[in-house]
Automatic annotation (TrEMBL):
Ranges of residues in domain Mur ligase central: 109-305
Residues holding meso-2,6-diaminopimelate: R378, D402, N403, P404, R405, G455, E459
GO (cellular component) term, any one: cytoplasm
Catalytic activity: UDP-N-acetyl-alpha-D-muramoyl-L-alanyl-D-glutamate + meso-2,6-diaminopimelate + ATP = UDP-N-acetyl-alpha-D-muramoyl-L-alanyl-gamma-D-glutamyl-meso-2,6-diaminopimelate + ADP + phosphate + H(+)
GO molecular function, one term: UDP-N-acetylmuramoylalanyl-D-glutamate-2,6-diaminopimelate ligase activity
PTM annotation (N6-carboxylysine): residues: K220
UniProtKB keywords: ATP-binding, Cell cycle, Cell division, Cell shape, Cell wall biogenesis/degradation, Cytoplasm, Ligase, Magnesium, Nucleotide-binding, Peptidoglycan synthesis
Name of the featured protein: UDP-N-acetylmuramoyl-L-alanyl-D-glutamate--2,6-diaminopimelate ligase
HAMAP family associated with the record: MurE
Pathway terms, separated by semicolons: Cell wall biogenesis; peptidoglycan biosynthesis
Gene, per the UniProt record: murE
Residues where ATP binds: G111, T112, N113, G114, K115, T116, T117
Species annotation: Phocaeicola barnesiae
Family (UniProt): Belongs to the MurCDEF family. MurE subfamily.
SUPFAM superfamilies listed in its UniProt record: MurD-like peptide ligases, catalytic domain, MurD-like peptide ligases, peptide-binding domain, MurE/MurF N-terminal domain
């Protein structure tokens, strides 16, 4: 593609060199540069791309987009100076990959909890409607039925546009995408056109990156501020910041709620460990999900599908057939008559949601044993809070290791224990070995009890000292249950 086409609608400070060049690829990582590529020098959180301009040219870069021009300019290279490369890269990638979001309807889901569930269920629902659909999520990216492995909740702008470009080329009519606060703050979604945005909820998370809750809130809100007036903005009225999110949006606003009047109103009529009976806008529907937080997620799915023009009756029919996402409230019954639930809950609020959902179904007829840890090299402030919420809502708590990353597991456990009183400690034990912790919980459980194994959900690894070791909570539980026969 000609460089001048890639630069369309990009505000430049100066252009030195030939704009008629044929560009064969676009990259922000100098290691991936090949002959004829465009290199965008982005100032990242870890490194500054400007220091790799020379390296990129050595590898064959034909053009450079930068904020500061190098002292010596290579005569055969075109230099494009812009005020903010982080802002420009998304738009450049959109141009290079043929503006994919003008060819499909992209819906973004943002919030602290529920993003994966809502995006995945919408993907599954619209495939059942008979469309080709794309999914960009924490668990996996999909181009219709083809799985594409994932590293981040939201990929970098170039990977993202490449992926969306493939979706458009392969005939996808819709794409559903988790939009993380990091992605908004780092302008990874710049240049994309959204057909809709969904807000789930907001509680403490990622403060290691955003520093304050206010910054975290602003990052989420910026997503709605930038939606076009052709889009919809669907917000959770049960969250105290639900209406704050959409106060400055140009998009058409709609609400969903389990508590108050809303465009999409829901109520839990019956619940059990096999599922719930819901009332959604005066229609009853049986669903294979557990807990009020899932009822809220399903309302968001219902609302978004209706806003995308689907008939309510058809949406409810498919809603009744959908199954939970892997590692999200995954219930497995033991031969001994107790239940183990594997869930990704890794924030204080997510733990509260899952534990309250368990109590809603149990109604005091059994004990709750919680196995919980916290990730290493992440927001340390939430560690004591996670221990406190677990103790408050469990009969016994086993504090263990999650993904320690580069920290010592015992140091993380000590941070969690620091939030507990002497009285709390009477129902707490700590076992650093996660497998041993799960085994102990199973030994303690009696018929009718529920074990919650929180924090890792769908993850099939444990990250220790930068190395990923195979580790799957669900596999371990099934292995223990097989030996109980």
């Amino acid at each position: 593609m000609k460089l001048e086409i890639i630069l369309k609608n990009i505000k430049t400070c100066s252009i030195t060199g030939n704009q008629e060049l044929e560009i064969t690829g676009i990259n922000i990582d100098s290691r991936l540069i090949e002959k004829g590529h465009l290199f965008v020098a982005v100032k990242g959180t870890q490194t500054d791309g400007h220091t790799y301009i020379g390296k990129a040219i050595e590898k064959g870069a034909a053009a450079i987009v930068c904020e500061t021009l190098p002292e010596t300019l290579h005569p055969e290279v075109t230099y494009i100076q812009v005020t903010d490369t982080e802002d420009a890269v998304g738009r450049l990638a959109t141009n290079y990959y043929g503006d994919p979001t003008s060819k499909l309807d992209l819906v973004g889901v943002t919030g602290t909890n529920g993003k994966t569930t809502i995006a995945t269920l919408l993907y599954n629902m619209f495939r059942q409607f008979g469309y080709k659909v794309g999914l960009i999520s924490t668990v996996c990216n999909y181009i219709d039925g083809e799985a594409i492995p994932t590293d981040h909740t939201t990929p970098d702008p170039i990977t993202l546009n490449k992926l969306l470009g493939r979706m458009a080329d392969e005939g996808c009519k819709y794409a559903f995408m988790e939009v993380s606060s990091h992605a908004v703050a780092q302008k990874r979604i710049g240049g994309l056109k959204f057909a809709g945005g969904i807000f789930t909820n907001i509680t403490r998370d990622h403060l290691d990156y955003h520093k304050t809750f206010e910054n975290y809130l602003k990052a989420k809100k910026a997503f709605f501020d930038n939606l076009p007036k052709t889009a919809f903005a669907l917000t959770n009225e049960d969250d105290k910041n639900g209406m704050v999110m959409v106060q400055n949006t140009k998009a058409k606003t709609a609400t969903y709620s389990l508590r108050t009047l809303a465009d999409f109103k829901g109520k839990v009529l019956e619940d059990g460990f096999e599922g719930m009976l819901l009332d959604i806008n005066n229609h009853e529907v049986n669903v294979q999900f557990i807990g009020r937080f899932n009822a809220s997620n399903l309302l968001a799915v219902y609302g978004a599908a209706c806003l995308l023009g689907k008939q309510p009756e058809e949406v409810l029919l498919i809603l009744s057939t959908l199954r939970p996402v892997s590692g999200r409230f995954d219930a497995i019954r033991s031969p001994k008559g107790y239940m183990a639930i594997v869930d990704y809950a890794h924030t204080p609020d997510a733990l509260v949601n899952v534990l309250e959902a368990i109590h809603e179904v149990l109604r005091g007829r059994g004990q709750v044993i919680t196995v919980v840890g916290a990730g290493g090299n992440r927001d340390k402030g939430k560690r004591p809070l996670m221990a406190q919420e677990s103790v408050k809502r469990s009969d016994k708590v086993i504090i263990t290791s999650d993904n320690p990353r580069f920290e010592e597991p015992q140091d993380i456990i000590n941070d969690m224990l620091a939030g507990l009183t002497d009285t709390d400690m009477q129902k707490v034990i700590s076992i650093a070995d996660r497998k041993e912790a799960i085994r102990t919980a199973c030994m303690l459980a009696q018929r009718g009890d529920v074990i919650l194994i929180a924090g890792k959900g769908h993850e099939n690894y444990q990250e220790i000292k930068g190395v990923k070791h195979h580790f799957d909570d669900k596999e371990i539980v099934k292995d223990i249950f097989e030996k109980e026969h």
